[in-house]
Amino acid sequence: MTAETDEVQQAISELLRAVRAEIDATIGAETGFDKVALTDGRVTGGDGVQFEYSFTTRGWKESFAEKPLLVRPRTGAAWESAELVAVAQARLRLRTPTSLGMKAELREDDTAGLVVLAEQLEQAAAGSTGLNLTTAGWLLGRNIPAAAPCSEPERYVHDWRSLQLNDRQRAAVVGALGSELAFVWGPPGTGKTEVVGHIVEGSYRQGHRVLFLAPTKVAVDQAMERLCTLLNAESGFADGLVQRLGDIAVSSLKDKYSKQIEPDKIVARLSAALSDEISVLRPRLAVADEQLALHVEYAELAQNFEQLRASAAQCAQNAAAAAARADSAVRIANLLRNELTEIGVPSGMFASRRARRRDELLYQLQAADRDAADSWGQRQFATAEQQRLTAQAEAVSLKCSGLRPQLSGIAPAERLAATAASLRERLEVLQEELRTIEEMVRRNCRVMGTTVAKAVQSRSLINKFDTVVIDEAGMVNLPSAWYAAALAAKRVVVAGDFRQLPAVTRASSDRKATQEVKAHSERWMDRDAFHAAGMVDDRGRVRPRDCLVRLNTQYRMRPAICAVVNTIAYPDAPLVTGRGDASRLPPSPLLGAPLILVDTASRRTAARGGSVGHKVNPVHEAVIHELVRGLQYDGVLPVRKQDDHPPEVHPSNRMAVITPYRDQVRALQGSLAYRFGVDYDGVVDTVHRFQGSQRPLVVIDTVAGAGDKVGFFYEGVGLSSATSRLLNVAVSRAQDHLVVVADVDFLSRTLKPHGEAARLVDYLQKYAHRLDVGDLVPFRAADDLASLGPDELSRPAFFPADEVPRAVAWDIDHARRSIDIYCAFLDPAPVERWLSRLKPRIDDGLRVTIHTRPSQRTKSERLIAVLDAAGCIVVQRERMHEKVVIIDDEVLWHGSLNLLAGTGLTDLMMRITDPGACERVRRIVERARPDRPASPTRPGRQRTPQQRDTGAARLYLNVPYEEKEAAKKSAKARWDPTVKCWYVAADTPRHLVERWL
Fold first, then answer.
1. Nearest Cα residue to 828 out of 901, 766, 736
2. pTM for the complete prediction?
């Protein structure tokens, strides 16, 4: 084995190890997937190796039915494979090698693609595949071939000289068409899709079979739509020249080209005549077979009738013969009895001779009696059989009589048999022709597009393609990119932007993994092809190479937005703008500049996120609500009742709201849909969901400021960091206007000074147009509430501290069903003051619920008793932070309002009309006691903490990850894996744990 072979085998081994670590991390993960709770379990079978269980299921997801699954007996236990047997109503049956109890958890197995990738790498290591290890090695920096520009691009790219391509774009196409290996660095809006389209077009015209790959269905479809536009005039396009393997996700591609690029639809169209004939012949064959079956059935019945009748006649003969034998035996027996009577008792001179004769006669009499009895039994059996067979024959005769009318109207059996044979023969010919068309369509494919994952799992793609193009390669993990490159016989083209979203991986950040495993995964799983091939150094800086072309002119963003992108992602290789500076949206005072900053620092107190902390921000949610409302008023966005707006005016085509955390996404999706209609449900999502798309207006909700920490989204530093790449994607989605909602003061104090996030905030402070938060979310006074109409009353609003009590009192007076007050502590004066307002409402029939912490002092116990006596429901909870009031499950007062405590009001409050926000607060408080839901308490009785199997009472804490060591050291805190929470003994002094309550 040569040194080069050893190096290849070592690389495959390292890739395989990284994939296996990723499988382990994915299986061991506790977040990022849906789980289904299983209860009431019982064993229904098994063979000692596999167990079969039946469970009641809550929240069953239909998507689980067709996917590999994992199961475990409890939270924290290891996940094991499971096979779904059946689902009926609220129960399911599954098989698994692990022993389960009464309860279990079920989840989708996300490792299926990784498992196949590992199998492919194992086969490559064994040398049993047709992979091209030379082309795969290029992506690891091994023996990179020299670049050789194509000398005659006009031969391969239609209208080459008249194409509107800039110099860099032309250089990328020429370099790719002349080389074995090409890298195209395409930052946002630089026309990478257009360049890649011409590279695929030129490769096809060079006689290459091309495999186009991208990490997502949307990315594949967007490129395929461009390829179809370039190649739809080619001979054979309608017969599968370009094909899409896998489901189409982009509706425009499906509408325009699905009949020409989806293999099944191509086959269906080309074989339409065959299919029509098959659809005619199959029913005819079915009819012929059915009629022939009638003939066969009648013949079999007729034969059966004759057999039954003959058997019945034979039984009659047997019965008569048996009767004759019985009569003969009876006569003989009578004669013997007469002779015995004559002999009598032997005596006299010949007594001994008479005795011998008597014994002979007795023996003969016994034999005769037996013969008579046997014969009578045979006669009875034969008679019964005769009757049974006669009855069967009569039944068969009736069936024959029933079939005769049907047979009278059809052809004879011989003719039907000939017809069926002829039809069957013709169908076989048609099926063979259909298979020939299917094979022809497969052979016709010269350009195939699919996802990287699909290519890994489709072993049939090996040895079929000359050129492999990997688009959006920055999002492809290294083992998958290596395998994709190994599918190429001649050329590999890698396109993408290593400063946009990276591949989604788990092992390198798995807390359970060793440092060695994490470091290995960072190198062999997380890196993209640009880094692994040596086009980029470890700091994210580009290394000039002949095979790398950087596209540097962007046509998407206005210059001001492009400048922001350069600041955070391309300071060493700034983009230039190739478009005009005019906005394509209708004019609006809210969009007076390309860059707009809404600074929410002055409203921070009202934004406290409670138990969710830094992942939600109600003030930002309110700002975005009012921004949408204002843009509707200005005609930029359609209003709820405007159903006839054209597609380009649809909210999801004009606007995107990008936010880093899924919690804020859910909050905004629900509240926007509630207030503005379902058209706005698809406007909001995380950064990852908007990769590859663009909008005239992009709103970035930074969220930060609602909690005490900035959050993982902003913690990275460096051009290769996740923070830089995520911010780059978020900002660069904007074409005409970028609105950033941010607590500037909080971010300035908490962000790492030299990080990309800090540079973004600094740049916006210097150059963005300021939109005052007060211009969006109004300040109100308590007296305003009585004069507002329903629409204005439903708007979010801020209230100064001195106006809050009267405004809350107005809402209490106008409550219709319920009032919920969340206040961690109680003090006598405010309890007495507010009870005077609440008691009349209770007497009116309203439900008033007070949520507070368990009483630690006699004074608190007395106040709880007072509230209870007034008719309030008191719910006591540990770890309670929320200070809110909810009216009728619709109106939410949020901020620093301790309504029943004497801490005073020092900050403004926010009033929101949104059932979704009210429900979120309820869910947050429910999580304060993860072991069980709360229940009302009576005065003077504190609800006991959760009792574990040991019988020890526990107090659960809200300990951030970075403070766990302090909690363990100062308070002897321990981790409960079942509820995923830190706890101490219930009698632990409060001053030791106050910061985590």
1. 901
2. 0.76
